[in-house]
Design a protein that fits this description.
59% of the residues lie in helices and 8% in strands. It is an alpha/beta fold and 599 residues long.
Length: 599
Amino acid sequence: MMRERHFLLAVLLVVLLSFLLKYAAVGPLSPLGYTDVRDFYIPDGGVPYAAVSFEYPVVIALFVYTMSVLGGSLTGYFLLSSLGLAAAALLCAHLLFLTAKGRRIESRAIPFFACSLSLLFFTIYNWDMLALLFTAMALYFADKRKDALASASLALGFCTKLFPALFLLPLLMRRKWMGGIKIICTFVAVFLALNIYFIAASFNGWSYQFTTHSSRGPNIDSVWGIIGLGFPGFSAQISIISFAMLGAAYILLNFRLRRSDYVQACLASLLVFLLFNKVFSPQYAIWLLPFFVLFAPLRRRDFYLLEASNIAVLLTILYWYNSPGGISALLLVSLAFVVIRHLALFNMLRRTGRLALLAAAAILAASLAAFAAYAIMSGPVAKPGIVSLAFDDGLETTYANAYPLMRGYGFNGTAYLIAGNNGTFEGRPEMSDGQVLEMQSGGWEIGSHGMTHANLLENRSSAAYEILGSKQALENRGFAVKSFAVPYGKYDDSVARIVRSQYSSARTSVWGLNNPLSDDLYYLKSVWVENTTKPGDVCSRVYEARDNGLWLVLMFHYVGSSERQYDVTAENFSSVLECINASGITVKTISEAQAIYER
C-alpha cells in the first residue's frame, strides 16, 4: 500500500499544479492557462440541449450543468469543476494501480501516469478525465471478467467522450454469444437511461453533439489538416476518406487480435482511431495513459516522444491562435511536430506485435488513395469558403463604426434589428431608419432579431408575434427581411417551425462553422466576437473556413468599446477585417451566402 499511496500523492500533486496552471497563468503565459472548461459555464441554469445548445455528450452536459448550478458564478463553477476532475483523476489512478497490480506491473504506474505531461496539461483542459475514469473502470472490470460492469463503464464513457465505445468490439470478440448479448443489452440500457430524457425533450438539440462533429472539417493541428492544405475545399471528401480508413483498419485489426489480450486490442483500436480520425486535438493524448501503464511492450522512448511532440503541438498552436494575425512560423513548427506525433503513434501500433497489419495498412492506404483521387475528380463541386459578418441589436455603432470600416474593403454585412424598440437597447442608441435604409441601399442585408428581443423558449405564447410580427413590422418600414437571428440563442424545433414559415434562414448562437454539404440553414452556427476575443483567434477561423470550404458567420454587437462582454474595440474589429481581406475569402451577407449554399 505504501507504493500506491506514493503514486496517488504524486498524481494529486500534478493535478494541483494543473489547476494552478489553468487558474493563475496570465500575461504572455496566458495560452498555457487555456481550458475549455471555463468557456462552458451556464449562467442561468438552462437545461443542456433543451434550453442551451451543447456540443458534448450527456455526461459532460450534466457535469457542466451541475457545476454551474452549485457554483453559482463563473469562479465557483470553475473551482467545483476542477475539484470534480481532480477527484476523477485520483479514482482513475487508483483503478489503474489495482489493474496493474493484478498484472504485476504496478511499477509502471508512476512513470507512465503520475509523471506525464498530459496529466499536467489536460486534467483541467477539457472533460477527458471523466472519460478516462470510465475507461479505467472498464479495463479493471474486464480483467475481473465482470462483463456487465465493464459494458456499463464503456456506455458511461461513450456518453462522455465517444471514444470508449471503441473498446466494446474487443470485449464482444472475447465472449461467447450469450455473453455478447448480455454486454450489448447492458450497453444499450445504460445509454438509453442517460439519454432518453434529452432525446424526448429536444431531439434536434440532443443530436447536435453528433451532427456538429460529423460536419466538422479536419483541425489544423492534425495530419489530415496538413493533407487538407494541399486540397483546399475538399473537407467532405477528407471526412469520407478518413472514416473509411478508420473503419476498415479497425475491423481488420480487431479480427487479427481477437485471441490476444483485451488491453492490447483496446490499445490497438485506440491507436487506429488516433491515426486515421480527421480530428486530433492535443488532449486526446491523455487517452493513452492507461495503456502505457498496462501494456508492457510500450517503452519509455515511445512515451517521451509522444508526450514531447504533443505538448509542442499544443503550445505552438495556442501561441499561434493568440498572436495578432497569426505567426506563420509557429504554424509551420506546429505542423512539423504533428508529423512527429503521428510517427510516434504509428511506432506504438507496430509494438502491438502484428507486423502483418502494416502490410494490410499499406494496401488499404493505396486503395483509399485511389478512392481519394476519384472523389476529388468526380465528387460534388466544392463550395468556396465564405465569411458573413452579422451585427445584432441594431446598435448605432454598426452604422457609425462598422459600416465605414467595412465599406473601405468593399464588404457588406447583415444587421439584425429589434423591431419593437424605441431607439435604444440596454441603454445604448440604435440606428435610425434612415441610416438602416442607407446601408441597405449600399448592399447590406437587414434581418430580424425579434420584436422585443424576448427569450423565445420562456415566452412561447408570444413566439409567433416575436418572429412573424417583427418581420412584418420591419418590412412596413421599408426593409427587405429574409433572415432571422435567435435572441439569446434560445431555440428549439417548435420555434424553428415558426421561423421556417416566413424566413429563409435562422442564425443561432451555437458556436462553430457551417458545412455547405450538410448543415441546416435554420440552425446556422456562428462564432461570436467579444471583448476578450483575440483577432488572431478569429483569423484562424477565417483561414479554416477558406481552406475547408466552410461558411463562417462572425457575430458582433457593439463596435467601438470593450466595456461589456459583447463589445469589440474598433482596433480589434479593424484587425479582423484586415485578416479577412488578406485571406482572399469570399465575403457575403447571410442571404447571399445562402444562395451559394443552395446551388
